[in-house]
Amino acid sequence: MKPISKKGDYAIRGMVYLAGQPPGRVVLASEIARAMDVPPMFLSKIFQQFSKLGLVRSYRGSGGGFLLGRSPKEITLCEIVEAVEGPIMPNRCVMSGGACSRQKGCTVHPVWKKVQANVREILSGVTLEDLSKT
């Protein structure tokens, strides 16, 4: 599997910071960026994308900024990673739509499916609430 990109890393850091804030506190992207050592413009773009997905809420104008779109215990690390990186795939053969013509007779295919399921299960078992407590 390829490593998580910088974008994915920045997204996780920013979301963990938001999860550690008091409920309802709207936070400027510049504050999050400074606190988590993330480029502010990059973080703003990530959070605008997350706003469309309901992971964060975006507020404009004076007093504007971001806050989590749902409770930190309802947002998983898997959801954040897949929102930025796309579906977790250790090999192209686990893609839907017949990306691999050998799927039916391949003895390795079930292993890749298991790897994919295990990684997703681990990441789905970790919430922002968990991460903001450590």
How would you concisely characterize the structure shown here?
This protein has six helices and two strands; from the N terminus they run H-H-H-E-E-H-H-H. The chain has a two-stranded antiparallel sheet with strand order 1-2. Helix 2 (29-36) packs across helix 3.
How would the blueprint of this fold be written?
Elements (H helix, E strand, L loop, with lengths): L5 H14 L9 H8 L3 H14 L2 E4 L5 E4 L8 H9 L23 H16 L3 H6 L1
Antiparallel strand pairs: 1-2
Relevant terms:
Arc Repressor Mutant, subunit A, 2 strands, 134 residues, mainly alpha
Give a description of the structure:
This protein has one domain: Arc Repressor Mutant, subunit A (Orthogonal Bundle). The protein has a two-stranded antiparallel ribbon. The model has no long low-confidence stretch (mean pLDDT 89). It has helices at residues 6-19, 29-36, 40-53, 77-85, 109-124, 128-133; strands spanning 56-59, 65-68. The chain has 134 residues and is mainly α. The longest helix has 16 residues, at 109-124. α1 packs antiparallel against α4 and α2 (29-36) crosses α3 (40-53). A hairpin with a 5-residue loop joins β1 (56-59) and β2 (65-68). The chain is built from 6 helices and 2 strands; from the N terminus they run αααββααα.
